[in-house]
Give the backbone structure.
Amino acid sequence: MADAKMLKKVPVREQDPKVRATNFEEVCLGYNQEEAMEEAQRCLGCKKPKCVEGCPVSINIPGFIEHIKEGNMEEAYKVIGLSSALPAICGRVCPQESQCEGQCIRGKKGEAVSIGKLERFVADYALEHDIKPAGAEVKNGHKVAVIGSGPSGLTCAGDLAKAGYDVTVFEALHELGGVLVYGIPEFRLPKQKVVKKEIEKVKELGVKFETNVVIGKSTTIDQLIEDEGFEAVFIGSGAGLPMFMGIPGENASGVFSANEYLTRSNLMKAFDDSYDTPIAAGKKVAVVGGGNVAMDAARTALRLGAEVHIVYRRSEAELPARAEEVHHAKEEGIIFDLLTNPKEILVDENGHVNGMKVVKMELGEPDASGRRRPVEISGSEYEMDVDTVIMSLGTSPNPLISSTTKGLNINKRRCIVAEEETGKTSKDGVYAGGDAVTGAATVILAMGAGKAGARGIDEYLKNK
Amino acid sequence: MYKVLKAETLAAKIHLMVVHAPRVASHCLPGQFIIVKLDEKGERIPLTICDYDREAGTVTIVFQEIGASTVKMSALKEGDSFRDFVGPLGCPSEFVHEDIEELKKKKMVFVAGGVGTAPVYPQVKWLHEHGITADVILGSKTKDMVILEKELSSVSNLYVTTDDGSYGRSGMVTKTLEDLVTNEGKHYDVCVAIGPMIMMKFVCLLTKKLGIHTIVSMNPIMVDGTGMCGACRLQVGDEIKFACVDGPEFDGHLVDFDQAMKRSQMYKTQEGRALLKLQEGDTHHGGCGQCGGDK
Ligand SMILES: Cc1cc2nc3c(=O)[nH]c(=O)nc-3n(C[C@H](O)[C@H](O)[C@H](O)COP(=O)(O)OP(=O)(O)OC[C@H]3O[C@@H](n4cnc5c(N)ncnc54)[C@H](O)[C@@H]3O)c2cc1C
Ligand SMILES: Cc1cc2nc3c(=O)[nH]c(=O)nc-3n(C[C@H](O)[C@H](O)[C@H](O)COP(=O)(O)OP(=O)(O)OC[C@H]3O[C@@H](n4cnc5c(N)ncnc54)[C@H](O)[C@@H]3O)c2cc1C
Ligand code: SF4
Ligand code: SF4
Ligand code: FES
Ligand SMILES: [Mg+2]
């Protein structure tokens, strides 16, 4: 291979933007074996790999890539499996540009090694070829309860099962996966092909799952411990409570939280006519916010046939979404109304949205987050012609568990207080991690917290 | 899977089912609800808990066929199952946490409209078991639609009224309530109204005039029922509340009923089409130019 070619990633095949804007099939098609082996050649196999420092679960990146170079995918999968239980998911949704790939040495001169796409390739290969994860050597009979089946709960449960524990996961919804099933859309993370299968692998480790159990309502943490014999509990209940702006008109018909819109489409499959749950697709949709969630809501609305505007109060540089998602959204024809902030939602006589009053913004001095604070430009108000508004302003932890568990401390953002290294909370035997502790973050950070919780619980029960 | 142990039709299009759901039965209290999902492709449908048996691990629901999902559910027979059944959701009625002696000093009246009669039953039953007999006004369109009369009369002081006068008193529930207070010497400290939103709205207008503190049980459109989506949000006084976790019961004099009623209509046309598709099955080939059934 010529050196110039080594500066760039092997391009990944994607569905054509015009075609994919009308379907819910996966956008990124991933590498095939040949492409993966070619891309793997770009890895320098660094002695002190920077990339690993950027990965929250410290996957041995040069290690697994080395096996790809040799075409030994099963070995590559085993290397990844030592650190991550959900590689097909992380390879797809990690913000690689700010994590592993952000640190890769190749990125200094050219493009970083496509670590995420390689990880995805290996994981998909394992799913297709039904390569099983290594199970527990000996069962130790100790019962542990895990609350929530998102990435933190799944990871904690998987690690504990591997260590021999008898683990039961309790999930409030009727499907397993947390945000992976109700939030992130099919076109980014296929549910049957990837999420379900990766959860199957956790089941194969011996983890039991009980859906339709809302801890705090169907039973409580104290009762799990006192009445059902669980010796430790891990809380991975996420940050699912949506925020609204508090502007006039926000309760109009046609105003949704991104969580509602995405739940209808992803969890309830409203995009598929053969399912019973309805969704108000909208003709002209404004999505307020600039994160991953906003991009997902916008691209879902687009696929349901709408003209879609992202309304974000800062500029392009501050968009918190993954770079790849912003790029894909633009390719598909999402319109970005940046430096724009909603003031009021206009409502017709039937109580339905028929417009949105917005104001233009400019960037002022940096605020506490270090980002330049947006300030209104006076007199710049105008009306957008929209029939649907999707609020994507962030979420906070649901108080259901903290309000029903004696002795569990929370901070002023309603997040559960837990130690980073072990997940230990203020309550004996109770551990926590993921979005429930940090507030809305990322899949891989939640997985890291699930691993930490498993270590903490293992140590606690061994010393008990 | 959650097995239906008993399925019974109480009146035209109104069904009672006893469902095996031990976790729900072991924790539920009056005022709470569950969410059922019939099958893989079903919607999540919220229904109030009408009765429960902790020992048997069963929960009783009563529902009315009004759209595609409730019509499909009505076909379930003894021995069939719901794919999902989750709860108890929402907060129990306020009075279950009150001091019983204080509660005994209050005169309570329940106003039940139509299928709203079902959720009233566990509340008055609970009170009865705690030595309190409340008055209940049961309103129905017509004689054939009166449900749970026998059950209610055994645990409360019951007044039945029908809109068309075919049974019991005649006229709307508001008429009976007003008659009881202004002409029949009744005094109430608390009114609990459960039924269609329009009924609860008019009961609240009346009780405001009569000066009776009023609790209503709101039934906005829900999805998850755990506080995750905000579909169920309501304006209550100057606050926005999520009915599924903050309610479903609220101070009726603070609820913005007009807004809530408009929000419940959000999926009207889609729901209508879903029902048509179900009723006409493969014979629904469109032609109306509206629903795309011919595409
Ligand atoms: C639309 C969207 C897109 C995103 N895109 C990305 C992305 O591209 N990349 C990325 O890295 N991150 C992304 N994120 C963030 C990421 O998904 C989350 O940070 C991550 O899922 C958090 O994992 P968790 O296990 O802590 O919680 P969750 O995934 O939220 O799972 C929590 C689970 O607990 C259950 N639960 C809650 N309360 C109870 C209870 N009382 N009893 C029983 N069960 C309960 C919930 O139903 C849920 O299933 C996105 C988030 C959203 C919403
Ligand atoms: C807390 C609560 C308790 C309830 N208890 C009972 C009960 O005990 N018995 C009973 O018969 N009904 C009850 N309902 C109403 C019941 O959920 C609806 O009748 C049912 O969802 C209608 O579904 P459908 O598909 O058959 O009708 P559709 O044709 O889809 O809808 C008909 C109407 O039902 C309402 N509705 C539709 N979808 C939902 C939804 N997901 N959530 C809530 N309302 C919806 C809307 O107002 C709609 O216009 C309750 C609702 C709530 C929120
Ligand atoms: S888990 Fe995420 S951060 Fe770690 S190597 Fe994989 S893609 Fe990169
Ligand atoms: S830093 Fe880049 S080149 Fe070095 S080992 Fe990691 S992926 Fe390979
Ligand atoms: S139904 Fe989703 S928050 Fe209440
Ligand atoms: Mg319906």
About this structure: The pocket of iron/sulfur cluster (ligand 4) is lined by residues A 43-46, 49-51, 61-62, 104-106, 113, 115 (CB under 6 Å).
